[in-house]
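dude i think i finally got it to work??
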Amino acid sequence: MLATPIPRIRGRSSLLSKNVMIAGHRTSMRLEPEMWEALADIGLRERANVHEICTAVAARKHPDASLTAAIRVFIMAYFRAAATHEGHTRAGHGAGLPVLNETHERIKMR
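look at this
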């Protein structure tokens, strides 16, 4: 079990609202700041802006899924597909709780 939960400012949401254009229509999405950063990272790698990525995800998402859920799943799937065994080894993954605790500490420091 992790020592402490990720800190949260009482009374404030950890979600950040931003407007995105989906196929030319403006909508707002509430995502964690880390998810917005991940979308920006994907955009840089794929030479696409956030609006283009969100439009592509929206066009392919399950009809019952919310856009924000589909975006989160896409981000996770994108980085999971990019992860390799060699990369995990270099990052020290597979060491069990020490790596989980270290990752938790990095998240806390943000």
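The chain has five helices and two strands.
im so relieved honestly
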